[in-house]
Amino acid sequence: MGVTEIMQRSIAKVTSETSTRAAAALMEAADTGLLPVFEDGRLAGVITDRDLVVRLMSRSGTAADVPVGEIMSKPVVTCRATDSIEHAAGIMGDHQVRRLIVLDDSGELAGTVSVGDIARDASEITAGEVLGEVVEFR
User: Fold this and answer.
1) Domains plus CATH for the chain?
2) Of 9, 25, 80, 96, whose CB is crowded by the most CB atoms within 10 A?
């Protein structure tokens, strides 16, 4: 079984100029904790629910109007749609992330894959191993 079989294909996206308030609203509407961020039509980073809390809420002033580009995570951690689930899980563990952007063979956005997708559709054991790596103190 490969990433392409379990990844989420319907992906909400934002630009680096999107306000953090709008990104948070989009996350809520799409029921996701990760949004790809594009600049000039290219994948430039990701904004996560954690980015919104940790990087945004620690700021003073009108934090909700900050552009996503100021707090997005980069570089983007990715896998390929053709990768095995075990390979994607290894990437998650190595980078201590719960979600990956999935790219197609031409390097374009194809979807996302999460630890939850792995647990639900592939292997709870593999998902548990990934979580162990993600929360490990390094």
Assistant:
1) 3-135 (3.10.580.10)
2) 80
For 59, list phi and psi in degrees, rounded to 5.
-85, 150
Q: How buried is 6 (Cβ within 10 angstroms: 0-12 exposed, 13-18 middle, 19+ buried)?
A: buried
Cβ contact 75:52 at 8 Å: no
Residue linked to tokens 């563990």: 93
What does the mean pLDDT of the chain come to? 94
What does the block give as tokens for 45? 């980073």
Vertex 111: Cα angle to 106 and 114 (nearest 5) = 130
Q: How many residues does the chain have?
A: 138
64 close to 20: Cβ distance less than 8 angstroms: yes
Helix axes 85-95, 124-135, angle to 10 degrees: 20
Q: Specify the 3-state DSSP secondary structure of 44.
A: strand
Residue 19: its pLDDT value, please? 94
13-46: pLDDT as tens digits = 999 999 999 999 999 999 999 999 999 999 999 9
